[in-house]
Amino acid sequence: MSFTILTDTSANIPTSLLKERDIYVIPYYYSIGEKQYSCLDTEGFDGEKFYKAMRLGADIKTSAINFQSYVDFFDKFLRQGQDILFVSMSSGISSSFHCSEIATMELKAKYPDREICLCDTLGASLGEGIFALKAADYRDAGMSVKEVHNRLEKEKAAMYQVFTVDDLMYLKKTGRLTGSAAIIGNMLQVKPILKGNENGEIVNFAKVIGRKKAIDSLVHRYNLLVQNPEEQLVGIAHADCAEDAEYLAEQLNKKKPPKEILTVMYEPVTGSHVGPGTLALFFMGDGRVRFR
């Protein structure tokens, strides 16, 4: 029996690919001044303008998706008699997944014959989006909603998410570094290497001097930890640093070329937290890769 795949805008899947794979999206919202925005059309998003505004000091505020928004979004599909699989941003960096759980409890009472499966990917950007695309592959291969959910739950431990940022001050703003560490780091061109851990939280596990060494460190982690790259869709997300993303893709293809590389601009909500110049890499390793 077929089912509907849902995700959120943090998944960073290009609009055309969402339509092609029949995936539906609930938006996160962000505010600049008094105006609120969402980004349902990632291909129409002017990332260059957005990240330029951030570099010039624009104050971006974001909010979690609330319980009622999930109820309204899920209900549109359930009342049409459809089972749903929701692929979510990590509960380790947002309270939104918990809100989706509360919404699901209410909707299961209303629709007792429908299946509502939630997958906390423990990821964001393409660390989430790749799983929504995997779900579409499995659905199209004839798997049931429960079978796909169980498959994703097993596979999510193998997603490695590693990234570097251009300006440590954005991490300071979100409490990742002390103010003095951020200032000294920027003066010395110290670039942190960060990853998503086993709980879906962002942790800083290494530092290098200089941007090129930071990017080469991402390549090194890939060559060290990737499993069966020839079968994989690998993800690259960047916050207005397209040339760096191209260089990263070139390096990945040299030693262990993946089946496909999907490169995207960070959508504005996730991008506002990591800051302009961020470059991230997403690929599958083994079941213990998040600890490495």
Give an overview of the whole structure:
The protein has helices at residues 15-21, 47-55, 67-78, 96-110, 126-140, 145-155, 168-173, 179-187, 211-225, 242-255, 268-274, and strands at 4-8, 23-26, 29-32, 35-38, 60-63, 84-88, 116-120, 159-164, 190-196, 202-209, 233-238, 260-265, 279-284. By secondary structure, the protein is α/β, with parallel strands linked by helices. It has 2 domains: 4-156, 3-Layer(aba) Sandwich (Rossmann fold), CATH 3.40.50.10170; 158-291, 2-Layer Sandwich (Hypothetical Protein Tm841, Chain: A,domain 3), CATH 3.30.1180.10. A 6-stranded mixed β-sheet has the order 10-9-8-13-11-12, sandwiched between helices. A 4-stranded parallel β-sheet has the order 2-1-6-7, sandwiched between helices. The longest helix has 15 residues, at 96-110. The chain is globular.
How far is it from the N-terminal to the C-terminal residue, by CA? Answer: 38 Å
* Number of helices, counting only DSSP H or I runs of 4 residues or more: 11
Going by helix content, strand content and strand pairing, the class is alpha/beta
- What is the strand tally? 13
Uncertain stretches of 5 or more adjacent residues:
176-180
Main features:
292 residues, alpha/beta, Rossmann fold, Hypothetical Protein Tm841, Chain: A,domain 3, 2 domains, four-stranded parallel sheet, 11 helices, 13 strands, 41% helix, 24% strand
In short:
The protein has 292 residues and is an alpha/beta fold. It is built from eleven helices and 13 strands.
Could you outline the blueprint of secondary structure elements for this entry?
Elements lengths: L3 E5 L6 H7 L1 E4 L2 E4 L2 E4 L8 H9 L4 E4 L3 H12 L5 E5 L7 H15 L5 E5 L5 H15 L4 H11 L3 E6 L3 H6 L5 H9 L2 E7 L5 E8 L1 H15 L7 E6 L3 H14 L4 E6 L2 H7 L4 E6 L8
Parallel strand pairs: 1-2, 1-6, 6-7, 11-12
Antiparallel strand pairs: 3-4, 3-5, 8-9, 8-13, 9-10, 11-13
Helix pairs in contact: 3-4, 5-6, 9-10
